[in-house]
Amino acid sequence: MIEDVIKVKMPVGESLVIRKNRHLPDNVASAEGLKRLCVVSGIHGDELEGQYICYLLNKVVREKSEHLKGVLDVYPALNPMGIDTIQRGFPGFDLDMNRIFPGRTDGAATEWVASKLIQEFKGAEMAIDIHASNIFLREIPQVRVNINTADKLVKYASMLDVDFVWVHQASTVLESTLAYSLNSIGVKTLVVEAGVGMRITQDYCQRLVNGILNLMQNLGMWDGPVQPVKQPIVSLDRSVSFVNAEEPGVFVPTVRHSDNVRRGEIFGRIVDALSGEVRQECVSEVDGLLFTLREYPIVNKGSLIARILQEERR
């Protein structure tokens, strides 16, 4: 059942409308007393992987509704105007929507929308906040978890058929995000990141849909078919190595994204189109998994080229 969650009139005569698709078990009229999972995407208008994930998830649950045992709410576009205009932020307000939570009921229109969304998700058993990378970087399917909530969330993150669970230190977690705000009010929230901005990586999306169904099965919300899921690497005791551009130019990778690289291995070069020279050889400082790799070739000094998860120490 498709519902309008929030509707706000805009100054130019248009309306900002945020919608959800609510799925209830067959022959059940009310969500009362049932576990509820919220799947949200589209906070950033240039991240489109979640659009395909929501389509696939809605399709599976609609066609196999007899297997649903809880409430599934799917919100494909929390920033519909951003998606319509292919803008990362909230058009006209020059801000990142994922930096204004939990919002304010007496604030500006964007803050009011954020506060209403928090109330909308309140009381859910869990939420999954789906992101892609930006247009510059490609990410393997992963879940990002605040170390302060790792004890509660890592076991659920491991059910989502991802390659990697990245446990962040508290100092890197922004308190103004949707995930932080929901975890603060008791809604266990996982942040999924996969793919690249403005593109859809179909195999990643299909894996994540299978992972969501697997999570629902473990929560007692789904008894339908689920494919076996991959057990992810968890970064709890491992460091992440960052490689940045030391020179401007054109980045050309020499390995595939998601490859394992060795310490001292060249995984790409920054070249100068004008002179025909190599400006920088990008070398791994550790043995590990290349889980982030530069997608957009043009780089400036300081641009992020790669993130590498160091191998487990033996």
From TrEMBL:
Gene3D superfamilies: Zn peptidases (3.40.630.10). GO terms for molecular function: hydrolase activity, acting on ester bonds; metal ion binding. It comes from the Bacteria. Keywords: Hydrolase, Metal-binding, Zinc. InterPro entries: AstE_AspA_cat, N-alpha-Ac-DABA_deacetylase. Its cofactor is Zn(2+). Residues 35-217 form the Succinylglutamate desuccinylase/Aspartoacylase catalytic domain. Transmembrane segments: none annotated. Pfam families: AstE_AspA_cat. PANTHER family: BLL3975 PROTEIN. This is Succinylglutamate desuccinylase/aspartoacylase family protein. It comes from Parasutterella excrementihominis YIT 11859.
